[in-house]
Design brief:
Elements: H1 5-35, H2 38-66, H3 74-85, H4 89-106, H5 115-151, H6 156-183, H7 194-220, H8 225-241, H9 250-266, H10 277-301, H11 311-336
Helix pairs in contact: 1-2, 1-4, 1-6, 2-3, 2-5, 4-5, 5-6, 5-7, 5-9, 6-7, 7-10, 7-11, 8-9, 10-11
């Protein structure tokens, strides 16, 4: 399937979601500042800047790699550098993709020769968005959920931010999932419909259960954040052990592995492109144990929380979303996951590609696998 009008519209919708997400988070942080909640203000702004800064670093690095050895004017390179410096490089990529693809999909005599370039641009955007949502949107959901449950501080703007963040997680996850299938060699393109819905539900339900359980741990004691740091360090070390080779420089590779560590705190991705049945099973066994223990530990050490309005609904939701989410995971990989041409039984990963030389493979072949 080529780069269609529907895909162009979806790209535009993704841009709208990104803009609304940033604006709503900025307004919420400003609201916290005016109300004197300076820690909430700082954390809300910190997550926003962390996600943006990371995407700018990788976006500019890819820009320089793509134009390495080509004749480019100094003005153009300086222009792109300034755009990334003021955190607009990510949106410049959106503009380029929408502008370049417009003539291909909305004019009668379109240029099909540009489709490979368009899908490459779309894949880059999807990877950047995936990093951004796990550095900004997901932590933002965790923070706002903690503020609501622990401090009973609610507002319409707060709910708006959470809804937009949740939509961003859903949209970006599916967008990346479909772009990856489209860009990898030896991989069948993902059909729309039931497989998309099942995969989305698996991710959203397990991530939501994870966010809620972590919120309960932090409500018990802020020192629980140290447990989060320990989980992040473990995941980051694992990325070192398996020797990811996504970047062309050691410094960027270290940043990438740190980002992978953050993502693995909330959900599982294949970080090397090989079979990961064992790793996935261990990950979700540990995650389920932590999720189920959160309400129990909170009840044992803070019995008064059992009388609160949120405790029972949150506990039931954690249990049900975790169980149903894992059920969708099993259903997807056992019946709906399209096999590669070379491998018919790869869980949460595609066919292994030759990544000994990062310059000879596409970025999507070396990024996180589904």
């Amino acid at each position: 399937m080529g780069f269609t009008r529907f895909r162009w519209i979806c790209t535009f919708i993704g841009l709208i979601f990104s803009v609304v997400d940033i604006v709503s988070d900025l307004l919420l942080s400003l609201k916290y500042f005016k109300e004197g909640h300076y820690i909430w203000f700082a954390l809300t702004l910190l997550f926003l800047l962390a996600g943006s800064q990371c995407t700018q670093i990788f976006s500019y690095s890819w820009f320089m790699n793509d134009y390495n050895g080509e004749v480019e004017t100094k003005t153009h390179i300086t222009h792109m550098g300034l755009l990334h410096l003021v955190h607009m490089g990510f949106f410049a990529r959106y503009y380029d993709l929408l502008k370049t693809s417009f003539s291909c999909v909305w004019r009668v005599h379109s240029e099909s020769s540009k489709e490979k370039e368009l899908f490459g641009m779309a894949a880059d955007l999807s990877m950047l968005r995936l990093m951004e949502i796990f550095l900004e949107s997901v932590p933002q959901l965790l923070l706002q959920m903690y503020i609501i449950l622990q401090h009973q501080h609610t507002s319409k703007l707060q709910y708006l931010c959470m809804v937009v963040s949740f939509l961003n997680v859903a949209w970006s996850t599916v967008d990346y999932w479909r772009c990856l299938r489209r860009s990898l060699p030896n991989a069948k393109e993902m059909p729309s419909g039931i497989p998309t819905v099942i995969y989305l539900l698996y991710k959203l339900l397990t991530i939501t259960a994870r966010i809620l359980s972590l919120t309960l741990f932090i409500m018990l004691t802020p020192w629980s954040i140290l447990v989060l740091v320990a989980i992040w360090l473990t995941a980051t070390v694992w990325a070192h052990v398996v020797k990811t080779d996504f970047c062309t420089s050691l410094c960027l590779e270290e940043i990438y592995r740190s980002v992978v560590g953050v993502i693995l705190v909330f959900t599982f991705f294949n970080i090397k492109g090989t079979k990961t049945k064992k790793e996935m099973s261990i990950y979700y066994a540990m995650s389920t144990l932590q999720n189920f223990s959160a309400p129990v530990v909170l009840f044992l050490f803070m019995p008064r929380t059992a009388d609160s309005d949120f405790f029972l609904p949150v506990t039931v939701f954690i249990l049900m979303s975790n169980i149903i989410g894992l059920g969708f995971l099993v259903l997807y990989y056992s019946a709906l996951h399209p096999p590669t041409q070379d491998e018919a039984d790869v869980v949460d990963g595609m066919v292994t590609v030759n990544t000994n030389n990062p310059l000879t493979t596409s970025r999507s072949e070396r990024f996180l696998r589904l």
